[in-house]
TrEMBL record:
GO terms for biological process: iron ion transport. This is Iron complex outermembrane receptor protein. It is a multi-pass membrane protein. InterPro entries: Beta-barrel_TonB, Beta-barrel_TonB_sf, Plug_dom, TonB-dep_rcpt-like, TonB_rcpt_CS. Residues 268-295 have a biased composition (Polar residues). PROSITE patterns: TONB_DEPENDENT_REC_2, TONB_DEPENDENT_REC_3. It comes from Zhongshania antarctica. Belongs to the TonB-dependent receptor family.
Length: 768
């Protein structure tokens, strides 16, 4: 099942995992008398609290202490530690998440598309990827589950799930203030506090975080079309985010628990501008020279305004009641809404050659009723889930002038694309674990889902006579322009929600068998099916594809997995290993092709792909001595498109899986020392390896990360003896490696977006 393709990859991986790396302060170990043992890790992957080593699921868990000591500040950094995952900010965005687990995800964050990886915050599903690149603060634990999730979760997810669990209140009056500074004038502040209103009954808590940082590079603005010079610049890859959370917890009796929580994220960071990864096909009007590749990967010369904003807020109510000693009920209501203002420059030049000002809005409501029952040999989780939401958006594609010449301002050809999608999803699920023998457990689950969607889709062509770069006058009245400047030229798509209305039903089973061979070793095998709902292509061109209103169907993944979870050498070594095989059918592929001027491109979403994915994952933690610990995670995938039908022909030989590196891994070393009255210190260092990966299925691009790379991180933390003070210093990408995280490949050129360069952060926290 596992295929090491050549010696180069084997050598590269050995080099990566033999480099020094980091785990965390207060790692999962304790000293019991003369024995050094690993501590128990508790997770809720199966909707009840269990020891990580007793759960027959591929899962990686991070406690708040581990996250802080590693210096992890956003969930995208988890990809370093979790095998066969890729979590990135989407190209040309700051806080939109592109997440892949075992080669399954969603590359295109367009409204109405379903993500392949589910993001849950306190069991509330985030339907849209905007604002899902969450900063890590006020957190109790993060769990990453690999493989289809559905028979235990409100919303079905085909690739896996990220569970972000915020900190529960302790019942005491307490708080923490954290200040941080660092490279590129980083200035962060995080304040959290909780207060009992009624002792042992009613508590209120709040947390607020402000994260600011200058850009890693700059964007030239104020372009002079006559001289080819620039008069100003903006920050590129900067950060300006404000996040706030508030919660109230009420426990009037031992049986009843109620939690009301609200949150808001406001991201005012500049719109990232990609840099040319090869010379542009566009030329300076002043001298006829091509816009060359920048010497600094973080610099750019986009012609759109860099004003952007992502706002996301939500409210949730969770009520849990212990009905009997064996039965508990849980109800979760959630309401979320978001708005995004975005400007994407696809040509990466100051010319108005391929600029896209855009706006998106979304709102969602969900209800989930869950029953947990356990007695003797049986444990049952069952639930009903209902979701309703609307995702809407509009964007203008500001293209070349009608004569085909790039203009700085004035008359332009403009494609205006917009619409919305209404979604209703209802499901019932159950999961039953039965101890056949004292050491043998069978778990089966089933999920029935019904999704109903309808959509409005519009695609108009305009001549707009007033468009100017670096302003909000670009485009038509779909986004920021003035309708009085527009002349309607043609209508390619005008579909109402009565024409685009479909529903899909799916039955998704799962079965697991685990055998506790000894007290320290468990073997398991599992089979699970997952699906991602169908939908409608918001960019659909009915003039070239009359079937736009028919939409595209769901895609499905069938996963067979076998694993071993073990705790060896007198509880000093935790060693977990998994192999898996996946059949990925009816893949929803976005096919973008070049078209003659003035249209330049077309886009269609089709169920055209079939893939096979095999792989293995190893996670290990070893407590070498009472002071030294090491950790290792290795992931390998052989992901291959076996069939891609385009125009009635199988073109899979020229297509590849995207965001599916063959190898990922991290090796880590941590040193801790108790300093007595002077407190304690923890030193760590980490090397994370990642193989090459593609950004597009059907085309090779200079924006691809076409070679493997290793990132070296290190950190140090000091903790005061009275547990009030914490001082940390963390350095990331110490060798200042340049690596690409996304890109575009279009007729005007190829653009790349890059991961962070070398950075450092110093922080001090006081708990009271």
């Amino acid at each position: 099942m596992i295929n090491i393709r050549n010696d180069k990859k084997r050598i590269a991986m050995l080099i990566a995992i033999s480099s020094a790396a980091a785990t965390y302060h207060n790692p999962a170990w304790s000293q019991q008398g003369a024995a050094i043992v690993l501590e128990e890790v508790l997770v809720t992957a199966q909707k009840r609290e269990q020891n990580l080593q007793e759960v027959p699921v591929s899962i990686t868990a991070f406690t708040a202490t581990e996250l802080a000591s590693k210096g992890i500040t956003t969930i995208t950094e988890l990809e370093k530690s979790v095998p066969n995952t890729q979590f990135r900010a989407s190209r040309a965005t700051n806080s939109t998440l592109t997440a892949y687990i075992r080669g399954v995800g969603q590359q295109d964050p367009l409204w109405g598309f379903e993500p392949g990886v589910g993001v849950y915050v306190d069991d509330v599903y985030y339907a849209r990827p905007q604002a899902a690149v969450m900063d890590v603060f006020d957190v109790e634990r993060i769990e990453v589950l690999r493989g289809p999730q559905g028979t235990l979760y409100g919303k079905n997810t085909v690739g896996g799930a990220i569970k972000y669990i915020t900190r529960r209140m302790t019942g005491e009056a307490e708080g923490t203030v954290t200040l941080a500074t660092g490279a590129y004038d980083q200035q962060d502040m995080n304040i959290s506090a909780q207060l009992p209103i009624i002792d042992n009954e009613l508590y209120i808590g709040a947390a607020i975080a402000r994260m600011e940082r200058d850009g890693y590079g700059s964007v030239d603005t104020g372009y002079n079309i006559n001289t080819g010079n620039y008069s100003a610049s903006e920050e590129n890859y900067n950060k300006d985010i404000l996040v706030a959370r508030v919660s109230v917890e009420y426990s009037p009796t031992d049986e009843l628990f109620i939690r009301v929580a609200g949150d808001r994220t406001d991201d005012n960071s500049n719109q990232p501008c990609g840099s040319q990864s090869n010379a542009s096909t566009l030329t300076h009007p002043a001298n006829g020279q091509s816009f060359a590749r920048s010497s600094n990967p973080f610099d750019g010369a986009c012609g759109t305004t860099h004003l952007s904003n992502v706002e996301n807020s939500g409210f949730s109510l969770t009520a849990q009641y212990q009905l009997t000693e064996n039965t508990s009920l849980k109800y979760i209501f959630a309401k979320r809404e978001g708005e995004t203002q975005q400007f994407i420059d696809f040509d990466g030049t100051p010319l108005d050659a391929f600029d896209v000002p855009a706006k998106y809005t979304d709102d969602q409501k969900s209800h989930e009723l869950q029953v947990n029952y356990s007695i003797d040999r049986i444990a049952v989780v069952a639930g009903l889930y209902y979701f309703s939401g609307n995702s809407a958006g509009a964007f203008d594609v500001v293209l070349n002038g009608l004569g085909g010449t790039p203009y700085m301002d004035g008359e332009h050809y403009d494609l205006a694309i917009g619409g919305d999608v209404d979604t209703e999803s209802s499901s019932a699920y159950f999961n039953i674990s039965y101890d056949i023998l004292d050491d043998l457990t069978l778990t089966t689950g089933l999920r029935l889902t019904k999704d109903d969607k309808n959509s409005n889709i519009r695609r108009y062509a305009y001549n707009t006579t007033n468009s100017s770069p670096y302003t909000q006058t670009q485009g038509t009245n779909f986004t920021y322009g003035d309708a009085s400047n527009d002349t309607l030229l043609s209508v390619a798509t005008d579909i109402s929600d009565k024409d685009a209305d479909k529903d899909w039903s799916e039955l998704s089973p799962s079965v697991k068998l685990d055998w506790r061979m000894t007290d320290d070793v468990m073997l398991y095998i599992s089979y699970a099916e997952g699906f991602k709902s169908g939908g409608f292509d918001m960019r659909g061109n009915a003039a070239t594809n009359p079937n736009v209103a028919q939409g595209y169907d769901p895609e499905t993944v069938e996963t067979l997995e076998a694993g071993i979870k073990s705790q060896l050498w007198n509880d000093r070594l935790r060693l977990n290993f998994t192999v898996f095989s996946m059949d990925y059918t009816d893949m929803q592929l976005t096919v973008q092709t070049a078209q003659p001027a003035p249209v330049f491109f077309s886009s269609d979403v089709v169920n055209a792909g079939t893939a096979e994915i095999q792989g293995a994952e190893l996670e290990a933690l070893f407590q070498v001595t009472s002071n030294i610990s090491t950790s290792l995670s290795v992931g390998h995938m052989n992901a291959e498109l076996t069939e891609v039908i385009s125009g009635g022909t199988d073109v899979s030989d020229s297509w590849e899986m995207l965001n599916a590196p063959d190898w990922t891994g991290q090796f880590a070393i941590n040193y801790e020392r108790d300093l007595g009255d002077a407190g304690s210190i923890a030193l760590n260092t980490a090397a994370s390896y990642r193989d090459a990966s593609r950004n597009f299925n059907n085309v090779v691009c200079s924006c691809d990360q076409d070679k493997s790379y290793t990132l070296l991180d290190a950190g140090a933390n000091w903790y005061s003896a009275d547990e009030h003070w914490t001082v940390g210093l963390h350095a990331k990408n110490i060798e200042n490696k340049t690596y690409k995280t996304g890109g575009y490949n279009l007729g005007s050129g190829e653009l790349a977006f890059y991961g962070a360069p070398r950075t450092w952060t110093a922080s001090v926290a006081y708990a009271f």
